[in-house]
């Protein structure tokens, strides 16, 4: 009997169960994966579709900032003194060049002067942001522009375009007051961050320029405008392949700034200054408008727009007459005899009788010191002392007012002040006082009478600038208001306050009239110190003035005169016109001009004043008016002189006795003053 084979399913069932379990696990995981994938695709395509569409568009398109046209700066008559002009330029995009050195080599053969700036170009290119065009050279000639375009295929990453560059049509005439623009430096960015602000993105554009001096710096944010942007399509590497004109945003030009300056007067002032070092300021005595503010010698601000070469900058910086310094605001000098009207007002405020006479024999003794006058004037009252610029009169009388009263009077006239005219870098100057002496010289804190004599004639420690002299003259001419100077007429069409909105002067009208009478005599009495140099030759229009010579050193026992420029005296002149209806005031300082105020300062002030008066329609009509008919009867008197005071009573003033004086360690006073 054959036996039946036996079949055992234990192993088979185990294998089948294991297979089924794996199938279920893999299938489950597959289903979960497919479900997750479908869910994610649904989320991307339905829920987040708009978000990723926006990101994709942003990757395809981007904005490139376009610097806005800088705002125009105009004079009071609408003449552009700082504008923009078209300029061809070459740019390099670092990320689009195959080999920067090779590109610069070829570019150097086309534009040889770029080789001189090669290191600076490489530094700028490497510092620029990704795909940011960096200017290599501006102001290309047409030949250079055509040459670069001709070899464009061999210059990957190099492009040529046209932009607007800052332009100063009058060159040096407005260089100090308007200033200039230049590239943004790391120091500029740091200053903005130190002020707690975020630097605008526009500042990192290598082609952008900001104001560095004068009005350009003071009103830089107003003049900048708002940057625009070109919407461009880029490839995966960020290179531009097309421009979306419809998506671009135009730049908004900067605000227009109108100054109170007059371009004709400004140019004439720089012209008459010639090669001299100094400054000239003209003000309207009715409202405080500054018509002219020139510093000489000057420089061409156009050199700084594209970057001034080092050798030219060093030549300007090292020149002894300092063309880069704004002498109208930042240059301080002793005022010399132009300060005597201020001293006269202080004497009058102290109750000094203006008819008292002092006999000038050419010198005055104070203690053991002899202080000299520039001449021998004989008996002088206050009017004569101003007319003849007699030092001895002010030596003798000044201590009746005292240095502190003189200082207070000077401050009321505008000295030792900085004015809110919109630009900085103003020097206050110095008006010495008893408090200043005690603080500055603790070893010799006592103020001595001999120090007042120096201050009284505008010497010693006293220093002023040309703007302050013009303010003083304007306030004397106005005789009512403590005028404030105004330089900026409007910004963006919004007017700035007038300088006539000021408090009244704290002086008696008769005192102001007496001082003005002395200044009228200076320029119109034949014996005045500036008679010949002050004749305007404009009909019946006359000018009042005051000369001044200020020592630049202590002569000691050495000679007064010197042929060395830096050792010569400073030469000053202040004036207002017309004398019967004052409208304009002028102050001129000639640094190391030598001789006297009537030789260098007065002729230049006269020429500038002539320009101002001839531009005034009212004054021009008065000049062109036919003269009145000559009288038919005999003249009333042959002795009347324009600007002369009536003969005063003879009141003798005896010479003061010498006074003992303690040794001193303060600054030595100056000993003489030549106003001629």
From TrEMBL:
Membrane protein topology class: Single-pass membrane protein
Main location: membrane
Region (Disordered): 612-676
Presence of keyword Cell membrane: yes
All residue ranges annotated as the Penicillin-binding protein dimerisation domain in the record: 66-243
UniProt entry tagged with the keyword Hydrolase: yes
Biased composition (Pro residues): 645-660
Keywords: Carboxypeptidase, Cell inner membrane, Cell membrane, Cell shape, Cell wall biogenesis/degradation, Hydrolase, Membrane, Peptidoglycan synthesis, Protease, Transmembrane, Transmembrane helix
Enzyme Commission (EC) number: 3.4.16.4
Domain Penicillin-binding protein transpeptidase, chain residue ranges per copy: 278-609
Pfam families per record: PBP_dimer, Transpeptidase
Classification via SUPFAM superfamilies: beta-lactamase/transpeptidase-like (SSF56601), Penicillin binding protein dimerisation domain (SSF56519)
Domain of life the protein comes from: Bacteria
InterPro entries xrefs: Beta-lactam/transpept, Beta-lactam/transpept-like, PBP_dimer, PBP_dimer_sf, PCN-bd_Tpept, Penicillin-binding_protein_2
Ranges of Basic and acidic residues composition bias in the record: 612-627
Subcellular localization(s) per the UniProt record: Cell membrane; Membrane
GO MF term set: serine-type D-Ala-D-Ala carboxypeptidase activity
Protein's name according to its UniProt entry: Penicillin-binding protein 2
